[in-house]
Amino acid sequence: MIPKNNMITTYPRRITERVYLVGNHFFRSYLVRGESCALIEAGVTWSVPQIIKQLEELEIAPEELQYLIISHAHFDHVCGIPGLKKAFPNLQILASEAAAKVLLKAKVVTGFFSEDIALAENLRRKGHITQTVPTPETPETINVDMVVTEGEQLDLGKGSIMYFSLLPGHSPCNTAAYLPLEQVLFASDCGGYPINVDTIFPMYFAGYEDYVTSLQKLRNIDVSVLAVPHELLLVGSRNISWFFCQSLESTVDLHESILKDYKIGWRQDEISQRLFQRFYRGGLANYSMANIKVCTDLLVRRTIEAVNF
After folding, report:
1. Which residue in 52, 177, 255, 309 has a CA-CA distance of 20 to 30 Å to 90?
2. CATH number of the domain where residue 78 is located
3. Which residues contact 178 (CB under 8 A, 6 or more apart)?
């Protein structure tokens, strides 16, 4: 079960001397402080007013926040960009080259903000949103100011140096960041979506083998804090080791289950529907049904692609 130290109800929250948790339970962002500051994860439109208010509480001046690190180009990680850029005009957007290319596709960006609106409607219907949510400022495209590569560093000053690692598997453009000074790993969605205390939804949408390799790579890093974008924050090597083991086990089990059904004659759409019925609950049910159906379709497709019959 997910340890109790994940059950955070107040934001902002100081995690380490230099790292703060902001945003909300469903869409978490992280502030890293040095001489300048970086924000990791943009979240969705709904997150933006919360993040701005929380950064004000932390007395972060607009000119102090200089970087916004985007882990990958999925709508729930990028739709907060326009609002954050408006509030912090000097903000530079950092992402992988693959993510930068995705964000220059107008049709894709338009689809992202359609999903952003659908998600806000779901959250409001469930009572998670009670305040007024700003209408998304839908840009035609989103420009990345700085492309990060494997092993690249971002020096914020005062010893706060971020290291980047490209980890395809969840998405072709996926990037994790690591702050070795405090052993904080910002793992993006590499470990899947924690639906509840007992269930992790594997998300190898770009490739099963790459996803497993990424998990194995991350579990070998010395980590004291595992900071991810959705619902989860783990402290302590024992808890973090548990999570990576649980994530890897869930991924392998799902892969084998899909293959078993496929080999005995289930159609791909039938397997996908069963996965949807199994996983569309908890925080994952805040997303549109169409969005999660695409996700389960991808899981089935990537599983079958990974095996030669």
Report:
1. 177
2. 3.60.15.10
3. 162, 163, 164, 165, 184, 185, 186, 221
